[in-house]
Amino acid sequence: MSKGRYSKGADNKVLEKLFFKLLPVQIVLIGMGSINSIIDGTIAGHYIDERTVGAIGLFYAVITIIAAISSIILNGGAVISGNHIGRGDIKKAGGIFSLCIVLALMLGVITTLVCICFPEQIALFCGADDSLKESVAQYARGYCIGFIPMFLAEQLSYFLQVENQNRRSYVSAVVAFFCNIFLNLLFVEVLNLGIIGLAYATSACNWIFFLILASYYFSDKAQLQFSFMNIPWEETIDLIKIGSPSALEQFYLAVNSLTMNRIILKYGGEPALSARASLEMLGGFFIASQVGCGSVIKTLSSVYIGEEDRDSIKYLMKLALTKVMALTFAIMIFMMLFSGTMAHIFFPDKTSDTYILARQLYMIYALALPLILVIQIQSNYLQATKNNIAAHVSSLVDGYFATVIPAIILAPVIGILGVWWADPIGGVLTALVYPVYAIIFWKHIPRSSDEWLLWREDFGVKEDDRLCIEITGMEDVIGSSARIQNFVEERGFSHRTAFFSALALEEMAGNIVSYGFGDNRKKYDMDVRVVSTKNGVLLRIKDNCKAFNPVEMNQIFNPEDPFKNIGIRMISKIADEFSYQNTFGLNVLTIMIK
């Protein structure tokens, strides 16, 4: 008997492995920025003074605003290229890649020039007083040298995931991490450059990180080659529209930071400001899994929306709300238990007001982590589905009002603790945006998971018209062949169409098991979707074996061995459409039989 699993929405091992393959990359990339900040803060607190930690924290408002503009390119490009990949159009995805690179380069040049020419004005904009203005200005001068590689590396990091080059991202992050430690100590402790030395070290590491990533695109291996002539400039407006909710959220966060810094200075003074700055440096490390999960949700949802694959989107949400949520609760407990240890990293004097305030802040902020995960899932999914109005509202609430209003109300009553409690309270308020929008969207409380996911009737294929099969070996292929033939005939197609559909699955899936799985079945997985459409039967076969392009093999004919690749050539002749692509390390073969 076949051990293959059939269902209208089977759990997808291919998707699960892909999800947890992409998630660590996102965690590393997001966490790397936080780790570099932690290094800067630690060096500043131990080798310069506590006030320098606050000065660095003030400049983060500028970094957040610039990151907001960059996120337009990153998020808009991810969604549009993901849609193209889901439709099997790798050439258009390459055009979006080229567009993102050019826009990121332009942004890097402009922001670098602004910071070089107007550092004192930037310091005043950040809210620095006379005692901190020069420190912030110096940090701006040194930090901006790394803007160009920082923005370019953000784009390359996403597209390298499409190219299945995650290892390169890990290597570049590790190299940059150790270089940052070495250069910080060299510039601050040995050369005595002070705060500008911290900025120089970060900028140098940004260049190192970027150059390691970029080296891949100077090879012939890359599917997405930069081509100025292939840039679809007409898609720039759509890119901005789709990416703007994330950008506006970053902008709101920057304005939030400017507002909160003034509230903090009023009710807690410079010790509270330094404590808050230390959380901004450290917090990115602890929310990396939640923000990374949101990025993966957006990336994969965009692809599955392009494919109109309901089952994969549902399973994607299941993974995020179960396994990633469990990880988040573990991180929350860890952060609460070791709040004192983390505060000691920045502030060695455990009796100081700054240390005490930082420890309190970490323990309270930890409570917001599960809510942050929910918000990241919601907001990124809204962007992927192009519900732009709801995404903008969520960004505005999350980025500004949800924390600023509670802080303004509570700070006069309970002092600086009122500002600290604004984070978990804001998380609750922001998490309510999505369900409220869903009720407005349907004009009633959603009654099913499909409605909660905002799917109208015309999205995707109805449940009875799709069959999901998990292949683990050759016995599954044989059993699935008969199942597919019956499925197709039951949908009213001719016996010929049903027979060809079963034959296509048996031949192509059999090839993958024989030559892709090898002797190590447990290492590889294959997911088959059979879809009944008005135009015919669509078969989509996904596997995580080594890259193998049957479309190219079909074009190879050796007169000395006329039977070589005969199975592939046979299927290409009976199929009306026969296409292949390899993205995110997955082989995706699409066969349409009309």
Instruction: Provide mean pLDDT, rounded.
Output: 85
Calculate the terminal CA-CA distance, rounded to whole Å: 31 Å
Q: What order do the strands of the largest sheet run in, or round the barrel if closed?
A: 1-2-3-4-6-5
Number of helices: 23
Strand residues, percent: 5-15%
Backbone CA Rg: 26 Å
| Total strand segments | 6
What is the SS-derived class? alpha+beta
Sequence of secondary-structure elements: EHHHHHHHHHHHHHHHHHHHEHHEEHHEE
For the record, the count of structural domains works out to: 2
- Considering DSSP H and I runs of 4 or more, what fraction of the residues is helical? over 70%
Describe the structure.
The protein has 594 residues and is α+β, with helices and mostly antiparallel strands. It has two domains: 7-452, no CATH class; 463-593, Histidine kinase-like ATPase, C-terminal domain (Heat Shock Protein 90, 2-Layer Sandwich). It is 72% helix and 7% strand. The chain contains 23 helices and six strands. The protein has a six-stranded antiparallel beta sheet, sandwiched between helices. The chain is elongated. Mean pLDDT is 85; it is low at 6-10 and 556-563.
